[in-house]
Amino acid sequence: MPTPKIEYGILAPVLVVLAAAVLAVLVEAFVSRRYRYVVQTTLSFAAIALGLFTVILNKDVSGRFAEGSVAVDGVTIVLQGTILIFALLGLLLIAERGFQSFTAQASTLPGSADEQRALASGLQQTEVFPLTLFAVGGALLFPAANDLITLFVALEVLSLPLYLMAGLSQRRRLLSQEAGLKYFLLGAFSSAFFLFGSAFLYGYAGTTTFDGIKLQITTSPGNDLFLLVGLAMLTVGLLFKVSAAPFHSWTPDVYQGAPTPITAFMAAVTKVAAFGAFLRIFYTTIGGMVWTWRPIIIAISILTMAIGTIIAIAQKDVKRVLAYSAIAHSGFLLTGIVAFNKSGVGATLLYLLTYGFTTLGTFAIVTLVRDAGGEVTDLNRWSGLGKRSPLIAGIFTLFLLALAGIPLTSGFVGKFAIFSAAYESGNISVVIAGVLASAVAAFFYIRIVVLMYFNDPQEDGTSVVIPSPVTAITIGVCAVATLVLGVFPQPVINAVNSLAMFVAG
Amino acid sequence: MNGTSQMLVYLIAIPLFSATVLLLGSRALDKVGHIIGTLASTAAFVVGLLEFFAMLGRAPENRAVTQPLFTWIEVGNFNVGATLLLDQLSICFVLLITGVGTLIHIYSIAYMSHDKDRRRFFAFLNLFIAAMLLLVLGDSYLSLYVGWEGVGLASYLLIGFWNQKPAYATAAKKAFVANRVGDVGLSLAVMIAFVQFGSVSFSGVAEGVEAGKASSLALNCLGAALLLAAVGKSAQFPLQAWLGDAMAGPTPVSALIHAATMVTAGVYLISRSHFVFDVASVAQLLVVIVGAITLLFGAIIGMAKDDIKKALAASTMSQIGYMILATGLGPVGYAFAMMHLLTHGFFKAGMFLGAGSVMHGMNDEVDMRKYGALRKYMPVTFITFGLGYLAIIGVPPFAGFYSKDKIIEIALDAGGAKGIILGSITLLGAAITAFYMSRVMLMTFFGSKRWEADAHPHESPALMTIPMVILAIGSISAGFIFNLGDRFINFLNPVFHSDHSGHGEKEHLLPPIVVSALALTAVAIGVSIAIAKYGRGKSIPAVAPADVSVWTKVARRDLLQDDLNEALFMRPGQELTKALAIVDEKVIDGAVRGVGSLTLDVASGVRRTQTGFVRSYALWVIVGAVGILATIAVMSL
Amino acid sequence: MSLDNYLYLSALLFTIGAAGVLIRRNAIVVFMCIELMLNASNLAFVTFARMNGSIDGQLFAFFTMVVAACEVVVGLAIIVTIYRSRRSASVDDARLLKL
């Protein structure tokens, strides 16, 4: 048997990050506690930066590699670039030490003497860095996977660290652990569906490669039972990851319970990776089945938008509002899948880019609003924030307007692109639902704005802490990106559209 | 056919840059902030003047110039560039905004001299100027929308500038809500335009209308949506309630934003969309009705207000009612609406500055019952305010006479019963205006001293009086200059295509001289009644008398507008929410509340599915999986 | 024996697993039910490998086992921590996050 041919240069982004992750585990084990934080942050940032560099080197690559199990093409390049940028910003939030978002030692009991001692010693465990790197590695591989096995492994490499990271919060540890448990159980449950679906697709095509499945669908059209079961189950697994209704229930609980920097990371990075894989599978692998899956995705998309926007209105916790907003945005993103045309790919990529910056920035600001007990996420206690710290409230308003899709923010550009792609494809129903949902959604975003500016501040110790440079950089970058993508989107639109091409096949 | 100009962008960029510098600058800028702000506004005015003279130098049919800035969005066949357009209509606004704006900047230097946040105040004023210029310079509904939101933002920031006081913050909130309702109208209009014509630029929509691309129903919907937007922004019936409360902001703000410029954006919007209204007869009729109702509504409220700023605000409402009415009367009306808008900009801004000057001298007292006999103590304020007064009630040869008289004339000429009704309303409005403005005049400057013990009225410093004097000169002369040989009408003609040559020969219901006589009679009646009630020798109680007729009470309460809002929107909303015990604490009062609570009920119902049990979440996953399987199965049969 | 029977068994095991997730309260048992679902998939994989005469399915089954092992590591870590904090491994007790 010949040795498999591996194109290390082209797979470098994934390999660099995963290698760094393994190295980071060793660092956690062997480097003295005093230097660990410095070493870990340096290592992580260097790995991400190097990954980004290798992605740029790959920018003209288009083809299948590692024996056809990985596809690197324009879409992969854009997605990997986006993921790495968001990972960098997310890591900046995670690296913020002043707020102590993470528990000093995850194994200690909440409220126990051990915990006190671990906290008092000021020596935090830094296992969050290797975990983050593993998740990033999985996220990079997920949208590039061109094989069911690779897809499944990438999905798990992405998910498993996130289950742990969700449970690492320092304050309200019970909530955080519960979030971890829920995320884990439901995630594993949905990956069982995913796996079962993969098995049936394999049974149908006799191969696990996407190209083989695609070929089988085009050469022998017809409604094979294995194909249909496989398709349905695989879709369930993917829909869970993008938190589409009715597979969304974990999202608000996990977003609320997880440490906010992790929530920010999840909201941006996981969404990009999951929609990346969604795009590849639905546009290429099972593109031949479009008449079967399109009505389902339309229904799910409309349901997701409706549930996300309507429930968000009744929320009282800012992180839950943002979680439901993330669900609604998944619904909007699904319209890009529904479009199933050339502009749909570019529009989805653009939307992911715009949405990621905005959502990262939003959660970054959530980490700043605190009282003596940690972050304040109760919306009522955010009232009058505009009077306390006009600058932060102003930037938060910018992000909310972008989430609502108001013109001159990146959100409008993304929404516009994705809705017009769906409109072009003739699926008017989903566009109408999208516009209506956006209108309703504007209500709860504006509600927060009103709360911040027109209500009186409450005297309960809630304050906005001055961000340290790392968090300030994140917020600044996100705000600038939100504005620039809103005002001068054309260069980015052009760049994304020129790259938005799947490898031919 | 249109030329280009590379200067237009500076109109917006200069004040915007200044606003950014002032907002982000450090405390070190506190000492010079007001000077930077004023210079920025002046520079914009100079650019505006240069453009104006350049425009006069061109032949009338190619006076409009554009400046493409950049391609904003290009998706598929949809292409929106950020392009600025300066034509005869926008230049009127540019000069008004920058000219009056600069005067008000100068005034504010003195007026706000004791405020520690003066730098921030000037930053907001500059921001407002930039946004307002974008509103009138954009060449598409989308750019207009951006400017529209920008002026809204600047307006809330400025109304709530002294937001330490709860009442002021409430006022800002109310303005916010009314404007949101209006904004819904504008965004609807943008959407309708895009769906119907595939374009959102003014020229694109105009061509589409001309080519008959849209049904008359669609055009009327578009018109109605535009009207809704105008109603919200220009404080017209039934969304007028916020304007009175907006007077909580500093007085220069009331003068600039809530009298001369922003509130007239609705008139601009309708005039700019003349090609829609010219063919959408139902929407056009609605415009007339809204204008007519508001002009009386505002006037009636004006009679009952003791707060000098609120009385002036009511009068603004009423005067804008005149303008809206005129725009609803078709091609001939737009130019007169614009003329009234400009003259109103001069005299109303002047009067507001006068009111500010009075307040400045009277320890910020706004109750006219505590004024009296101020003419001896504040002569300059008295004279400039008096000139504005003569202008607004329409005494020849002051500015208001020319513009208002024309509106009355064309209202009468509207034909048939409509003409007679509208004519009577405008005449009645003129009489009431004369009455309540005389009342303001008499209560403030004449009669006996009814001051608080610690009041020491004094004339304001030169920085405040000079802008008032300049505006007063405008109040005297503007109307006469505009009207000389119909030059203003002819100037605007290329924009509105109002075939003006036929104007003179058209059959009038009444000859112009009779109309003028009627209008003057109405004014004389109004003034006489005011003098009889508030003139020499009549005592004015320091507290508003309680034993007044029910009509006065109603008028004092803004014609029950707040109560109506409450009855229509808030009460049922509250009942609904009570039933579900999950009451969202006073998020936004008024209209939004009613709509919001319904959605809220649905939301809290659906929310129950989020039980917190992992197992029920898993159940949802299975339900979804089975649902997808079943759908696929059904479809493959 | 027809290979189809293995598929029926696989589907049955998957359903039992899914039902167990819905019914059982103990987090460990819930997790074991999920493992059962994974193993049902593995059975399907090897059956299909046999049917198609290709080795990919068996390969996939090995990958699944490795991934499942990782999942056990992560899952038990989470469940044990929760148990230590609450003295209960019931998934129904963990419902501070709701609505």
Layout of strands and helices, then pairs:
The complex is a heterotrimer of chains A (505), B (637) and C (99).
Chain A: H1 8-30, H2 33-57, E1 63-65, E2 70-72, H3 74-95, H4 113-120, H5 128-141, H6 148-166, H7 173-205, H8 210-219, H9 225-241, H10 250-257, H11 260-285, H12 290-313, H13 318-339, H14 342-366, E3 369-371, E4 374-375, H15 385-388, H16 390-404, H17 410-424, H18 428-454, E5 463-464, H19 469-487, H20 490-499
Antiparallel strand pairs in A: 1-2, 3-4, 3-5
Chain B: E1 3-4, H1 8-24, H2 33-56, E2 65-75, E3 78-86, H3 88-111, H4 118-137, H5 141-159, H6 166-197, H7 202-210, H8 216-233, H9 241-245, H10 251-260, H11 265-272, H12 274-277, H13 281-304, H14 308-327, H15 331-361, H16 379-393, H17 399-412, H18 416-445, H19 462-483, H20 487-496, H21 512-534, H22 550-556, H23 561-580, H24 591-607, H25 614-636
Parallel strand pairs in B: 1-2
Antiparallel strand pairs in B: 2-3
Chain C: H1 4-23, H2 27-52, H3 56-86
Helix pairs in contact in C: 1-2, 2-3
Notes on the protein architecture:
The complex is a heterotrimer of chains A (505), B (637) and C (99). With 505 residues, chain A is mainly alpha-helical. Helix content of chain A is 72%, strand content 3%. Chain A has one domain (12-94, 127-499). In chain A, the strands form 2 sheets. Chain A has a 3-stranded antiparallel β-sheet with strand order 4-3-5, with no helix packed on it. Chain A has a two-stranded antiparallel sheet with strand order 1-2. In chain A, α2 runs antiparallel to α3 (74-95) and α13 (318-339) packs antiparallel against α14 (342-366). The radius of gyration of chain A is 22 Å and the shape is globular. The two termini of chain A are 26 Å apart. By secondary structure, chain B is mainly α. Among the domains of chain B are: 291-556, no CATH class; 565-636. Helices cover 70% and strands 3% of the residues of chain B. Chain B contains 25 helices and 3 strands. In chain B, β2 and β3 form a beta hairpin. In chain B, α8 (216-233) packs parallel to α13 and α16 (379-393) packs antiparallel against α18 (416-445). Chain B is globular and about 95 Å long. Residues 500-505 and 568-593 of chain B have low confidence and may be disordered. Chain C is mainly alpha-helical and 99 residues long. The radius of gyration of chain C is 17 Å and the shape is elongated. Chain C starts with a helix and ends in a 13-residue tail after the last helix. The interface between A and B is large, with 64 and 57 residues.
